[in-house]
Design brief:
Immunoglobulin-like
Length: 351
């Protein structure tokens, strides 16, 4: 009897040891999490992930997977962001989702033969989603309808004109300072290309219009740097937008800060892309104006986080009409700036 009990105890010890080893082997030092999903603008959703711990693991691939069913994995729709050798955050902006649909999303990381998943997050798309357009470089832009106008929902970031010709990229401050009235150029804010993925490019007016002199200026819709079927809005089209937002017919013709809350209706809400207080920001229509800053005529970058300017196709003498939004007001500024300044472009659809 004593021998039988000893044998049973011995078996239990062996089994316990086996289970303990198995548990220790399955315990991974790679930890990944999925962040909250953010709506960047109507139809665009930002997925977020974090590699919390990596230890000695070699990550051969990481990214996101999503599905209309719970617990999505790599057999569902995925975006691959490649290998990685450090902890930290990563993100992806998705689009082209179906209307009135709930999607489930998980961040993932693959190390060896094992794929690790973060927590599941979800979002539901609205009943209607905007049209998406692309430029010659296949950059993707959402669109929004405001009144009878259809606008791009983000700033233009293309570096070539629609015919394929490259727009000169000019970085040097002195080079920018030496521009003549009709110099064509673009740049990224602070010459950092990564800012362009969020805020778009800054163009001189001749680059935005695709002209090299006054004799090339034509009447009507000017496509300029915009994709086919779209054009640079003129001053009257900006006025039409402002009046639809609630500005009076008298105020739109003034040259100063005008209106009350019309600018707030165009600004991305909150303080992620604008400094506090981002007064009156509601982004009521999905225009999603970000504080992209600008480059002045002397070649200096200014006001990222606090302001943005947009070109119009309309001239007043040797200057062009612009619109400006700021972080500390919900009004809209109408004025003129030198053609050699670097300013953002929003295109409007041909009617």
């Amino acid at each position: 009897m004593k021998i039988k009990i000893q044998i049973q105890i011995g078996i239990m010890i062996i089994l316990f040891s086996l289970f303990a080893c198995e548990s220790e082997e399955n315990e991974s030092s790679l930890i990944i999490s999925t962040g909250d999903i953010e709506t960047y603008s109507e139809g665009f959703y930002v997925f977020k992930g974090t590699i919390v711990s990596i230890s000695n693991e070699t990550i051969t691939d990481h990214g996101f997977c999503w599905s209309e069913l719970e617990d999505p994995d790599k057999s569902d729709t995925i975006v691959k962001l490649g290998h990685r050798n450090s902890t930290g955050d990563f993100s992806y902006t998705g689009f082209n989702f179906s209307e009135s649909t709930t999607y489930y999303v998980r961040a993932y990381a693959t190390a060896g033969l094992i794929t690790y998943y973060g927590e599941e997050r979800s979002f539901t798309t609205p009943d209607t989603l905007p049209l998406f357009i692309t430029d010659i470089e296949n950059n993707i832009y959402g669109t929004i309808k405001i009144g009878n106008q259809i606008w791009m929902a983000s700033n233009l970031k293309v570096t070539r004109w629609p015919d394929g010709n490259s727009i000169p990229r000019v970085e040097g401050q002195q080079d920018w300072y030496d521009f003549t009235l009709y110099s064509q150029a673009y740049c990224w804010y602070e010459n950092y290309a990564a800012t362009g993925t969020i805020y778009g490019a800054l163009y001189t007016w001749p680059a935005a219009m695709y002209i090299m002199g006054e004799d090339e200026i034509e009447s009507g819709n000017i496509q300029g740097v915009c994709p086919d079927g779209w054009h640079l809005p003129d001053d009257s089209e900006w006025k039409e937008l402002e009046m639809y937002l609630g500005m009076s017919g008298t105020e739109v013709d003034l040259e100063k800060w005008r209106g009350t809350d019309e600018g707030g209706k165009l600004k991305h809400a909150g303080t992620q892309y604008w400094e506090s207080p981002n007064s009156g920001s509601t982004d009521e229509f999905g225009f999603c104006a970000l504080a992209s800053g600008w480059r002045d005529g002397a070649g200096y970058f200014k006001n990222l986080g606090t302001g943005t300017r947009f070109w119009s196709a309309s001239l007043r003498g040797d200057y062009a009409w612009i619109r400006q939004l700021d972080y500390n007001t919900s009004r809209i500024y109408r004025g003129t700036k030198g053609l050699y300044e670097g300013i953002a472009v929003r295109c409007i659809k041909d009617q």
